[in-house]
Known about the structure:
By secondary structure, the protein is mainly beta.
Amino acid sequence: MGDSVQLMDSETYETFELNIPEDLEGRDRLAPGVEVEYWRIMGRNKLVRVK
C-alpha cells in the first residue's frame, strides 16, 4: 500500500489510515490481519510497532 496502511481498532471498530514510519520495527511483516500497536496522542495517531 505504499507509505500508508489502513487500520481497524479492535475495540471500537474504527478504521483509519496511517503513514508507515521509516524506522518502524517489523515493517516487512505488515500484511492484512497482522496486529499492530498504535498510539493516540493529542488527537493524532502514530503507528508504533508490529506485534
